[in-house]
Design a protein that fits this description.
With 99 residues, the protein is mainly alpha-helical. Helix content is 38%, strand content 0%. It has three helices and no strands.
């Protein structure tokens, strides 16, 4: 195998989720395009802001309702904390724990 100089060598056939840029063929592009057009057509740029640290309130309310039905017990929106993925969640937890 030749020496790899690049820090981001990805072997052929390997899907690296760490880079955060999956192949377009893996994404539901039509669905994403329709969702973006719908939200952008509302002429409300507020959704582009960082927002509350806990996550979007409307999303947390919807997620709480969904989880309450699934778990058959009440889930409060204020008990939910939305992250951009497992890595971010783990980072936040480790940041809060005493070292």
């Amino acid at each position: 195998m030749p020496l790899q100089i690049s820090q981001f060598y990805i072997p052929p056939g390997f899907i690296d989720l760490g880079l955060g840029d999956p192949q377009f063929s893996l994404l539901p592009l039509d669905l994403l395009r329709r969702a973006a057009e719908e939200r952008l057509s509302q002429n409300d740029p507020e959704f582009l802001q960082y927002g509350a640290e806990q996550g979007d309130g409307t999303f947390r309310q919807s997620l709480a309702k969904f989880l309450s039905r699934g778990y058959v017990c009440p889930v409060e929106p204020d008990s939910l904390f939305i992250t951009n993925g497992a890595s971010m969640g783990l980072h936040l937890i480790c940041t809060l724990l005493p070292g």
